[in-house]
Amino acid sequence: MTTTYEDAKQQLLDAMLTHVPFDGWSETSFRAAIEECGMDDVLVRAICPRGAVDLALTFHARGDAVMADRLKTEDLGDIKFRDRIAAAVRFRLQAVPDKELVRRGMTMFSLPSHAADGARAVWQTCDLIWDTLGDTSDDVNWYTKRATLSGVYSSTLLFWLGDDSPGNQKTWEFLDRRIDNVMQFEKLKRQVRDNPLFRPFLAVPNWLAGQVKAPAKTHGTLPGFLTPRK
Known about the structure:
single chain, mainly alpha, Tetracycline Repressor, domain 2, 2 domains, 11 helices, 0% strand, globular, Ubiq_biosynth_COQ9, lipid binding, ubiquinone biosynthesis
């Protein structure tokens, strides 16, 4: 049977996950995974040019895929949309087999050399959540939805890492509060927008916002890494 680059990358990732809790997403863990898999160095560097960083991002993408699959199979049709968002964030965190893998990843992505990779990974997670839930916005709302959810997701992730409550119940309560805060802010924005006293002041910002288009969809990207829509 032919082994593809993606198959080999997943094999390397599986081998590396046993070392990450002890040595982090490091060259040490990466070399141990290579040795266990018995792969040629040239092939490995072709698959993962940046070594452990590439496998950390592959691990993140694996969790995203698990979340998306669960969102598609769970029956969420009868709950409020804000609860669907909460469920998506919960499913994403529950896709992690070991918190230490994420904790070690955050240590690596806090480094200046990898900070953009970490931010992009969070953005892509939130982009996938909105897409899977059926978001079709193509104006400034495309950005604001993902930016807002990135803030909710990131803060919930940090809380979850330190949560030792049964079933992470405190984390889900924290998540509900964060989403409630967002919904209150959105309600305030609508009230301001619908108030006739503010309409003259909002005419230019609203016109500018109407000129903004979401990027052509290939995969979620961060502002600054966008492909303009033609």
